[in-house]
Specification:
Length: 320
C-alpha cells in the first residue's frame, strides 16, 4: 500500500507519499480501504513532535476517516467485506489501508458520504458531548463559544441553536466572524469585545454556559458567566490557562468543568448510538459540516501547510 509518511519531526515538507507493507489486522480488527481522512491540528502537533508518537519511524499520522471493509475480522458478521464504515480514533489513518478495532468501527448509512463522515465524526462527537454531558443545554440559555469558526466551534454553534440557545461566537477575524454568523450564531465578536457582547446578548445577566477551548481566555470565560453559570474547559489552543482561585468559584457560585471525548465513548454501542444521532441531525438539516478544502492524500504536505496557515474555515479532508 501507499501512505503519507515522515521520518523526522518538522514542517509539512517532512511528509512524503511512499510505500509501506500492508497492515496485518490483529484479532478483533478489520482492514479498511480508506476513501476520506479528516485532518486535525493534532496531526500537526504530532508531526512537529509536540505530541507523543508510538513506535519507530517511518510514522503515519491520522486518526479519523471513512472507507470500505477490505478484510473482515475473523468470526465477525457485523462488518462484512464491502461495508461502508467510519471511525474517529484509530491511528495510521493516512494510508490506503488501515487496521481498525471492531469496537471503533461505525457503520455509515447510505445517505452519509465518506467525506461527510470524515468531516463530522471526531469534531461532531466532541460538540455533541459538550452540549449533553459537560453541560446540558436548555431552551433559552445564553451560550458563548470560543474559537467558534473552528471545526468543533461551527458544529457547536449549530447544535446549540438546534437546542434553542442564544449563541455568541468568538473569533479572531472579520472573515471568521462572518463564518460564525453563517453557522447560525446570534452574534459574533472578537476577543476584546467578549464581555461587553455577552452582557448585551444576555441583557446584563451573563452567559449560562461558556465553552473555552483556547486556554489563555479562561479568566475572561469565568467573568462572562452569570452567577451560577458554567464554564466548560476542553482545550488549550493558545496555551495553558492561569490558575483559578477556588474562592472565585465559591463567591459567584460558578461551575468550572472539563471534558474529554474519550471519557464518553466508553463502548461500541455508545459510540454508534452517538454517531447515529449525529447522522440524524445531518439528515434533518440541523447540522451541516463545513468542508474548507479537499486534498489528495498524496498531497498531504500541501494540506498541512494550508491548515497551519489558519486560512481554513471548516474541515480539511485528505481523499483517496
Amino acid at each position: 500500500m501507499h501512505a503519507l509518511l515522515f521520518e523526522k519531526f518538522g514542517g509539512p515538507e517532512v511528509l512524503h507519499w511512499g510505500e509501506q507493507a500492508d497492515p496485518i489486522p490483529a484479532p478483533g480488527q478489520a482492514l479498511v480501504r480508506m476513501r476520506s481522512v479528516g485532518l486535525n491540528f493534532a496531526d500537526v502537533y504530532r508531526r512537529n513532535g509536540n505530541y507523543h508518537l508510538s513506535g519507530t519511524a517511518p510514522w503515519i499520522l491520522g486518526y479519523e476517516g471513512a472507507g470500505v471493509i477490505e478484510q473482515s475480522a475473523a468470526g465477525d458478521s457485523l462488518f462484512p467485506v464491502g461495508t461502508r464504515v467510519g471511525f474517529a480514533d484509530m491511528p495510521h489513518a493516512n494510508a490506503e489501508l488501515v487496521a481498525v478495532d471492531l469496537d471503533k468501527l461505525i457503520p455509515l448509512p447510505e445517505d452519509i458520504t465518506f467525506d461527510t463522515a470524515a468531516a463530522i465524526l471526531l469534531q461532531g462527537l466532541t460538540a455533541q458531548y459538550l452540549v449533553t454531558d459537560s453541560y446540558r443545554v436548555h431552551h433559552g440559555d445564553v451560550a458563548v463559544v470560543h474559537a467558534a469558526a473552528g471545526g468543533v466551534g461551527q458544529l457547536l454553534v449549530q447544535m446549540l441553536k438546534a437546542l434553542g440557545a442564544s449563541v455568541l461566537g468568538v473569533a479572531s477575524s472579520t472573515t471568521k466572524r462572518a463564518a460564525v454568523l453563517a453557522a447560525g450564531a446570534d452574534a459574533a465578536c472578537g476577543y476584546d469585545d467578549l464581555l461587553a457582547q455577552t452582557q448585551q446578548l444576555s441583557a446584563g445577566r451573563g452567559a449560562d454556559v461558556v465553552y473555552d477551548s483556547v486556554g489563555r481566555t479562561l479568566g475572561d470565560s469565568l467573568a462572562a458567566a452569570r452567577i451560577g453559570g458554567t464554564v466548560v474547559f476542553y482545550g488549550m489552543a493558545a496555551g495553558d490557562p492561569d490558575p483559578v482561585d477556588p474562592r472565585l468559584l465559591m463567591d459567584r457560585s460558578l461551575t468550572l468543568t472539563g471534558g474529554d471525548l474519550w471519557n464518553v465513548l466508553i463502548s461500541a454501542s455508545i459510540r454508534r448510538e452517538r454517531a447515529a444521532a449525529l447522522f440524524a441531525q445531518i439528515r434533518s438539516g440541523q447540522l451541516q459540516p463545513n468542508i474548507a478544502a479537499r486534498f489528495p492524500l498524496s498531497d498531504g504536505a500541501k494540506a498541512h501547510a494550508y491548515l497551519e496557515s489558519r486560512e481554513a474555515i471548516g474541515k480539511v479532508l485528505l481523499t483517496l
